[in-house]
Specification:
Layout (H helix, E strand, L loop, with lengths): L5 E5 L4 H9 L6 E6 L10 E2 L5 H8 L4 E4 L9 H22 L3 E7 L27 H20 L2 E7 L11 H4 L3 H13 L5 E6 L11 H5 L12 H8 L26
Parallel strand pairs: 1-2, 1-4, 2-3, 4-5, 5-6, 6-7
Helix pairs in contact: 1-6, 2-3, 3-4
């Protein structure tokens, strides 16, 4: 498909959405913004809930692609996750199908495979085809999202790049993030690659920077044209001095999902 120019960005008022609406226009995209809350500084943004199918269809009409960041981003009661991350995601895909949108970049999460054991020194990187092992209802919803994306590609020819986002924050704030950090600039590079690459079908990629302590294999992201530029290592000395290295017998550090496996942060923030 040609490189899309008009892109619907859902979840535009959220943390990652705010960074992407600031960074993606530099790649030549015209963004149409949507969130269930007003978007600061963007009175033109569409304020709508993912439950509103009519509003969603209107929002996607005429766009070339969708970057879907909206939804519940932490653990919550299953009913809350179901409404936003499962039913709401289905509404997004149906609106895209009905309006002929060719591609979605779906914000999946490393928590779709969160109970995968954390690699030790010398272990191979975790591949994208590792089985789903969600660590929360939130992670379960991301596993569902990847499967939904596969279904819409096989059934309807709607392409998706599912990005298993690590920790997309300006700076890593925990030792775990030395392995999972995705800098905002690299996130924009990855989203651009996911929008611009040809013939993606349904491609699953891990979303992180080129971290020295990386846990997972970025090869499928690189095949899209993603070239990460950042590394968490400059933050390592200070974080390790403050927090110490994870202990192998600590349940909160035994899996790549970290404390999501033991005591997950709850929605809302």
């Amino acid at each position: 498909m040609p490189t899309p120019r008009t892109v619907l960005l859902t979840g535009a008022a959220g943390a990652v959405g705010t960074m992407m609406r600031e960074l993606l226009p530099a790649y030549g995209y015209e963004l149409r913004l949507l969130d269930m809350a007003p978007v600061a500084g963007a009175p033109e943004a569409i304020v709508a809930d993912l439950a509103d199918r009519e509003a969603l269809r209107e929002a996607v009409r005429g766009v070339d692609a969708i970057v879907h960041l909206a939804g519940v981003s932490l653990e919550a009661e299953f009913e809350t996750i179901l409404a936003a991350n499962i039913t709401g995601l289905h509404h997004v895909y149906e609106a895209a199908r009905e309006e002929g949108v060719g591609r979605i970049v779906f914000a999946s999460s490393n928590h779709a495979v969160g109970f995968t054991p954390r690699p030790r020194e010398g272990d191979p990187l975790i591949p994208v085809h590792t089985p789903h092992r969600p660590d929360t209802f939130y992670g379960l919803s991301k596993s569902f999202g990847e499967d939904l994306a596969q279904y819409y590609w096989d059934k309807h020819g709607l392409e998706t790049v599912s990005v298993r986002i690590g920790s997309c924050v300006p700076e890593p704030s925990a030792v775990r993030m030395l392995s999972t950090w995705l800098s905002p600039a690299d996130c924009a590079r990855l989203v651009h690659a996911a929008l611009a690459a040809e013939g993606v079908g349904h491609t699953v990629v891990y979303g992180s920077s080129a971290n020295t302590r990386l846990w997972w294999d970025l090869s499928s992201a690189r095949e899209l044209g993603y070239e990460p530029q950042d590394d968490s290592e400059p933050y390592a000395e200070g974080l390790i001095a403050e927090q110490g290295l994870p202990k192998d017998d600590d349940p909160a550090h035994a899996h790549i999902g970290g404390h999501f496996c033991t005591n997950p942060p709850r929605w809302p923030h």
